[in-house]
């Protein structure tokens, strides 16, 4: 079968009209009609999207064969829109999560400041903790299921798009490196007085505990805000390395067993 015949067969099996398929691959009905009639081929990005929609390999679409071979499936194709959406999604979700976690840490400050006033510190702790929990829940609600597949499957990209992502990844690592150092130093600076006091190496540091907690909260906010963005880039730019991690392979096996139950 030719590419056009395969496209027609797959579209019919999927129950899609030419208009519906055109909408999925961001093209026109006329383009779909031309492809099915053997009047040209889609560009690489759209060809990968078609393979992704019908769950067949690109080899199957372009080479002579009778039936699609699922074992030849190359991976999940990530369009520019999907990649950019994933990065924005990570920023949005972890903006709330990082704020929520830092607020939960910060909620201990009223106790340290108003130890002699239980009514005051209890009320302040409740208010701050509720704000923190509310922010975390908001982040969880904001999470979209459509991006979960990027963490579960091997990914394929248009070559030029992957080069652009790689360049952006290198740039963002440079820009965020100094900020991450500030976050780590903030946490370390906040933890050290607690350790020194606990090990009786130094005394009289209790008065600085509120400042220490604030430093820890700030450091956590910075790291939780930045690290998921860098990880999102790594998932796409270094996908082969990502899918070969033990954790990825283990989670994939667990999902397969769950599907078979």
- Indicate how many domains the architecture comprises: 2
- Sheet having the most strands: 2 strands, parallel
Estimate the mean pLDDT confidence: 87
Q: Helix share of residues? A: over 70%
Total beta strand runs: 2
Number of helices: 12
Order of helices and strands: HHHHHEHHHEHHHH
Structural class: mainly alpha
The gyration radius over C-alpha positions equals: 26 Å
Assembly state (oligomeric): single chain
Shape summary = elongated
Pfam family, one: HTH_3
InterPro entries: Cro/C1-type_HTH (IPR001387), Lambda_DNA-bd_dom_sf (IPR010982)
Organism: Bacillus tequilensis
GO molecular function: DNA binding
How would you characterize this protein structure?
The chain has 261 residues and is mostly helical. The protein has 2 domains: 72 residues, 434 Repressor (Amino-terminal Domain); 184 residues, no CATH class. Helix content is 72%, strand content 2%. It is built from 12 helices and 2 strands. It has a two-stranded parallel ribbon. Helix 6 runs antiparallel to helix 8 and helix 6 runs antiparallel to helix 10. The radius of gyration is 26 Å and the shape is elongated. This is Helix-turn-helix transcriptional regulator. One of its GO terms (molecular function) is DNA binding. Keywords: DNA-binding, Membrane, Transmembrane, Transmembrane helix. It comes from Bacillus tequilensis. Pfam families: HTH_3.
